């Protein structure tokens, strides 16, 4: 049994794949842009990789995940991996998740003596 797919079917399949990839990535609407946070904390964990960097810091004794920008953007804007290494002190400005999960989306970070815009 052979199946033949015309251009419309292939276009639909391509659109479905793109939509699925978009849903799998972080949706920024899940963060509360009305509630700005600016904690200064020691980096407990650091990830310098794809699709974006990430940190774990302690805020008032609780571990928080921090979603950073893609590595290429951070490098272009002057942030280097050592600036956010474990043990470094950083100030992160960003927005917490609306659902109460201890995660924030970082808009900017002060690390290594400089402030870097991430978005």
Keywords, please?
119 residues, five-stranded mixed beta barrel, globular, 20% helix, 6 strands, 2 helices, single chain, alpha+beta
Give the number of DSSP strands: 6
Overall shape: it is globular
Strand content: 25-35%
Strand order of the largest sheet: 1-2-3-5-4
Structural features, described:
It is a single chain. This protein has helices at residues 7-24, 71-76; strands at residues 40-47, 54-59, 62-67, 89-96, 103-111, 114-117. It is of the alpha+beta class and 119 residues long. Strands 1-2-3-5-4 form a five-stranded mixed β-barrel. Strand 1 (40-47) and strand 2 (54-59) form a beta hairpin. It is globular. Residues 15-25 have low confidence and may be disordered.
